[in-house]
Structures are given as C-alpha cells and as structure tokens.
Specification:
Elements: E1 2-5, H1 9-13, H2 16-28, E2 32-35, H3 44-48, H4 52-66, E3 71-74, H5 77-86, H6 94-103, E4 107-109, H7 110-117, E5 131-134, H8 138-143, H9 148-155, E6 161-162, H10 178-181, H11 183-199, E7 204-207, H12 210-222, E8 228-231, H13 232-239
Parallel strand pairs: 1-2, 1-3, 3-4, 5-6, 5-7, 7-8
Helix pairs in contact: 2-13, 4-6, 7-9, 11-12
Length: 242
C-alpha cells in the first residue's frame, strides 16, 4: 500500500516536524509513502475569502497531481475537507470534474486513514505518561464527521490519561482570515477555548489541525497558561520514540 502525502502549507512552512511525524507513523504501520514535488496550496484560504475563480487553478492543479493516486493522506482536517467537500462547488472543467469525483473518495485525514482504512484502533507499544485533552476542530468534526478516530488512537496509548474538556467542539476562533478580519471576536473565542482547556487540568491539548493548535498555543503562551498543544501525529510519534 502506498499513500501519497498531501502536505498543507502550514506544515511545509511552520510545522514540518508534524508532517515528518505523520510519515514516521505511516511507515511504522507498514504503509509506503510518496511525496509529489509539485504540490501547492489546496486553495482553501482563497476559497474561504471569496476568491472562487482564483481557486479553480489551484484545484485543477491538485486534481492533476493526485487524481491517479490510490490513497492521499494529510495531517489536516480543514485541508482534506476543502478538497473532499469544496472542490465540487467550483466551476471545474468537465475533464477535471470527472477525475475529482473519483479522487474525492480517496483522500483522507491522518487519523481517519489509520482507523477507517488501515483498521487500527490503537497503535501498540506507545506510552505517554501525561494528562491530555482533545480539541475537536471545526472542519474535522463538522464537515468530515471525524470525532472518535483520534480519541481511539489517544486512548490506545499506554499510561495516557484523556480528560474531556467542557465543549470540546467549541471553535477556537481561528478560521484562517477570520482571525485577521474579526480580531476582537476571534480573541474572545480562543480565550473561552483556552479557559476550558485549563479547567480540564490537562498538560497537553491534542488536536488534528495545526492551524487551530497554533491559535490556541499562541493564547496559552501569551497569557502564561500551563497547558501546551500537540498535534496527534506528534503525540503518536513521541509515544513510540520515533
């Protein structure tokens, strides 16, 4: 089995270690990986800001690069949702549209791929002696319906203590350009989210979207709060000493 890696912009430029953690875990589970050099942004920032025509070129490039791959895996629920659910809203050329309809069934978020495709409810041999909580990011939980998959993988780690925070699916307030255009609202949203994380007494807030974790981590640090964030790919890699 070969998985083509879709590495979103944020991971390429800021959180490369998380992308590498995903690769380490996939290889640990016996999956071959393939990186397509010419890949670019999936177009989500432009699409969400209203530039749908400008997004078409990016979408068609993505389809050209990935349409023939057996599996496509990414460490980001929001980017996977963009490809799986939003490319169909674009005025794609007929040839691209046909290829997209086939491709959209073969792109998976990282934890979804492990649990639903590889059929691992847990990864043996890992250990992480800490209290953690889990943040349900909006695109991952609401648009992809992925809620239990990451929790299964977390609970499968030895010595870990998963503490559910109040309202785990409460939005962190990031939303890409939303946090820039509506700064004051965004700050109040992340403030509420971070308080719920602190109230859980967790040492780490685990998530499956680095964009959310970046926003949460920034507020936690700026306000001298105790919890820290960690992407689930990094958590699994650390637990296995990979």
């Amino acid at each position: 089995m070969i998985a083509a890696l879709f590495i979103p912009c944020l991971h390429e430029h800021i959180y490369a270690e998380t992308a590498l953690s995903m690769v380490k875990i996939l290889k640990y589970l016996g999956v071959g990986v393939k990186y397509i050099e010419d890949q670019t942004c999936c177009g989500q920032p432009a699409f969400n800001t209203g530039y749908r025509k400008e997004t078409i070129q990016l979408a068609e490039k993505f389809i050209s690069l990935f349409a023939d791959e057996e599996f496509i895996v990414a460490p980001s629920g929001s980017c996977v949702s963009m490809v799986r659910n939003r490319y169909g809203d674009l005025d794609l050329k007929p040839g691209y549209l046909l290829r997209y309809k086939s491709m959209r069934t073969r792109i998976f978020e990282f934890t979804e791929f492990i649990v639903n495709v590889l059929e691992f409810d847990k990864i043996d041999s890992g250990s992480f002696k800490h209290n953690v909580t889990y943040h349900d990011s909006c695109h991952l939980s609401r648009e992809l319906g992925i809620r239990e998959q990451p929790r299964k993988l977390i609970k499968g780690i030895k010595d870990i203590n998963l503490i559910e925070m109040e309202e785990p699916d409460l939005c962190c307030g990031f939303g890409g350009t939303f946090s820039y255009k509506f700064k004051d609202i965004s700050i109040e949203m992340v403030k509420s989210k971070c308080q719920k994380i602190e109230d859980s007494s967790a040492e780490f807030c685990i998530g499956a979207d680095s964009s959310c974790l970046m926003n949460i981590e920034g507020f936690l640090r700026k306000n001298n709060m105790t919890a820290r964030t960690m992407h689930i790919a990094d958590l699994l890699a650390v637990s296995l000493n990979l």
